[in-house]
Records
---
Amino acid sequence: MLLAFDLDKTIVRSDLVLPAEIADALHRARDAGHTVTVLTGRPQTAMLEYLAQLGVTDYYSANHGALVVGRGGEILRQQRIGADHVRALLERFHAHPEIEFSCVADDTLFVKNPDDARWGWAHTANRKLERYRHGAGLVADKLVFSANGMTQAIAAHVSEHFPDFVTYPWDEGYLEVTGPEADKGSALALLAGLLGYGAEQVTAFGDGPNDVTMLEWAGRAVAVGLHAPPPRPRSWAWRGGSRSICFSTRFQRPKSDAFRSTPSPTTGLQPAPFRLISEPD
């Protein structure tokens, strides 16, 4: 079985710690014959420490599915926002006093005002921060708006003028924008196909709006957390009272046929059966 995980608030806690118990459980799952992959909204550089802890070296996705990485670091897909679109998207908001934004390009955040308190986390996380220069011709992996209550208005503007673009609103007042076909569902389908898995052999885990497409694509999905997407009949499970999930290290056989083990297409091993348990913050 292919096990596809979001990071933040799914297996990574709000304090940015990946609990050792969860990392150990996923190592045990892989040792039992399952394949583990990660799909996150984070840029690639911001997910590497977690990949190292999980022992995932290839076949993963960053930037909400815009970047898909294969064996040996090969770029399988990289959907970016072109310079003309970046300029057109940000021009309307460049002079707005209440709106901050970040143009994320590789490992650098080009922001409207580097001294704004809303980017304080970037300094503590050792992220590269530079001032955005309008008309500089930047190509972006994604755009991030901090809008002080104007998230819906910005999302409506993007939808009207750039209908193929994807928007992700967050409870914290942030809005993220990616280019066309930059979503976790299509990224997971690409990864699964290359690894030899069909959707019925995939279980996906996520907590936020950017996880919905991969949860819908997977044959089995687990929505995690108090603010997770609502469960869907038959195909979804919901861990509504937990903020992180892990595997039972006993790998007990589940009652649901949705978790029936199948031989791994990549290793030929018969995976040990497992069940899911929730772990509170």
---
Amino acid sequence: MKKLLGMSLFSLILTACNDKPTEQASTTPVTSESDVVADIANTTTTKNPNWETVIVATQADFPPFSFKDEKGIIVGFERDLLEAIATASEFNVDFIDGRRNNIQQNLDGDSVGIWASSISITPEREQVMDFSEPYLNHERVVAILDNDANANIKDVSDLVGKTVAYSTFDSKGEEHVTEIVKDKSAIVPEKTAFLALKAVYSNKAIGALGNNRSFEYYTAHYPDLKIRLIPFEGRVTNSGFAIKEGNTALKQKLDMGLEKVKANGTYDELFKKWFGNTQS
């Protein structure tokens, strides 16, 4: 099972010396509202014909939250959790691949009902959309190799002037890496968080800025490849499922389902499956 869950990540990291990185199997993501509507026909078959079906959009290139397996099927912690929540609250969910810069457009246009892509709950977002209760907390960290060469790196101040990679998927990545290294020539932009981590293993960068939960997934499935996590801000952020502003009925279903799966132990099982431990 571990091999199946992480095959794409494993190939991505272990091909670090290749000029062309190995990408996960994928289909073309939806990038506009019309694309989302057109893609609905290709979503998962409804499980219960007596239940409402809600379309869930996610940017499926961010393990372990949402990504595609070898067959191009969307998998991940968020899919597993939303399917459990939906069953508990008696509605169906179908998943499509989208782009995070279309979140509000998709929700307001009713082409999708839920956006799930490790979306942080922020005051700015809460002004234009609603969220479920938080389903996960996370913090920003820098991953470095846990070896003798990095023994003197204790906190982010020790990374000044050193190369640090980040994902361009991260809207604050460049800003925060520049804050860490104090030198724009030392920042290493990559397309995804795991390509940023790949830069560390290929000696292209000393560290990789990212989400601690992503790195927990990586270390849980590949414990022989040792990394150490250095907190960036020490600030914990909550993620929630985004929905159209004012959709109280769907919010109630999400919140009730989340409460149920936490109470019956399903949440803990899924967290351990993807992150290898219990939530701290």
